[in-house]
Model the fold of this input.
Amino acid sequence: MSKPATSALDKKPARSPERDAFYQRLLRSNATPLWEVLSELVPALPKPRCVPHLWAYDEMRPLLLESGELITAQEAERRVLILENPGMAGSSHITPSLYAGLQLVLPGESAATHRHAPAALRFVIESQGGYTAVDGERTTMYPGDFIVTPSMTYHDHGNPGEGPVTWMDVLDLHLVNFLDAGFAEHHPQETQPLTRRDGDASARYGANMFPVDYKSGRRATPVFSYPYTRSREILEHMHKNSPLDACHGIKMRFVNPATGGPPLPAIATFIQLLPRGFKGAAHRFSDSTIFCAVEGAGHTRIGDTTLRWKQHDIFMAPSWMPVSHESTGDAVLFSASDRPLQQFLGIWREQAPLPA
Ligand code: GTQ
Done:
């Protein structure tokens, strides 16, 4: 009879004084025995260091506003509170691959134009007239809008309106840094010159038509903004006209209209409606996922942890832990993960729903 598939990689050979002495000598030659670390290097199952965690907006908002009294957006370059996973403290990770933060731009402030190798997305929480400019085009931000800043596109943020502007940033910077491929630079001008009108990218690329001679030069979406008014409308339409998924309610994935693929090469984003009283089935994915509650309230069970969330809260689910969502009223969740990268590598896995 053959052994169970997981046995071989999990066992560790016994230690002995002779072996230990040999391992010490190996170190002097910058070598080390595989058999002592094989189960960590080639785990039978994901062993996430990340833990399920929730950042309550009620707790974070006052801290963010306090940071606004201590440092200007100009001095900080970007005034952001990094959301750090407690299982990876001190490393600026929310998931093994992704960085997330809460950014604040106060009325009258702007954040200087720069560009960098990491790609970014913004998920808008509060805004009455804030903007992000990408590649010479300003996009006005409204709550629930999902906005992208592809790799090496010049971007700056500003708030000519009233009230604080806040959003969640997600960047693939850990992937870039892991590869030692990080580059960044300032634009010569603090505020980049506007070369296209607000709404230009959406008219050119976001209306099921492309300019006839359009050739996609890059992997990221040419549409910078996915406005919430539209995504909310679609969720409502889908809810009225299609059955609920047992795990996800109504769930849509944002796409790059030029490819049908994800909006950013390494980051997938989703929006889902959990109708009032939805009790989702347990499922799991190999992509650790960041969630932001856009509307409503509910709770999500992740492994043995139950996270209670309401509007504007951010939480994360580590790789391969069973996840199930329940809503009280109608609720909408935005989410982001490194799924495209895992799919590119051919390693992405899901079990949805989990077998009972
Ligand atoms: O807005 O460009 O949260 O460069 C981290 C690095 C935001 C930004 C972050 C950044 C930005």
User: Anything to note?
Assistant: The radius of gyration is 22 Å. Residues 57-70 form the longest helix (14 residues). Residues 127 and 165 are 5 Å apart (CA to CA). The longest strand covers residues 99-105.
